[in-house]
């Protein structure tokens, strides 16, 4: 099989994220049960169906690139990190999905040499897909398939528009982090949507001080960095990938 170039890999990630988004919406329309995983986080038929679709597509089209996917890891399938590997979160924001909110996403990201390189983030409820290749550019694709380039912005003089996790809205660490900064607004929402808002220049800062896993962040980090943004640990180092256990430390996302 001919090796795919970066544009073809991004097209594949985008197509599979979009197909998974449609599958998720179909299951939401039909109704679903919510189960609990070993860490007490929720899981639904939509998570499993979306992951099966994405993983099968990636392994068929690019069998030489390993796939690490959230539900497979939960089920005990161990895939080692490699110089290049996919990270898949088939339904990022399952809690929001289960609660009937629209703040959920599909994340398909490619890591190269320990750094997010390209990714697609589908927002099923709006029909949008955010995609990008670091060093090349980032785009927002509307429900009709039309793409527009997106860029991070310089913070306005009125202050920072901050994105924050819905489930850490009352976290005292967030208040402490924001203290002394000029803040125009704080918006609490779930999922990778927060990265997308920074990438398209609608927000300026997203501090993530609670727990995340690599599949939560690889695709949206690639989109944000492709749009000119930054994702750093609290110590100011790059947020890397292929860590033991796949767990991220706290990190900060910024635009310009």
Short description:
The protein has helices spanning 6-30, 45-61, 70-74, 94-98, 172-178, 193-199, 214-226, and strands at residues 34-36, 42-44, 67-69, 84-92, 105-112, 115-123, 128-133, 137-141, 147-149, 160-165, 183-189, 205-208, 212-213, 230-233, 247-248, 251-254. It is an alpha+beta fold and 256 residues long.
Word description of this protein:
This protein has 256 residues and is an alpha+beta fold. It has 2 domains: 6-149, 2-Layer Sandwich (Fructose-1,6-Bisphosphatase, Chain A, domain 1); 160-254, D-Maltodextrin-Binding Protein, domain 2 (3-Layer(aba) Sandwich). It has 7 helices and 16 strands. Helix 1 runs antiparallel to helix 2 (45-61). The N and C termini lie far apart (40 Å).
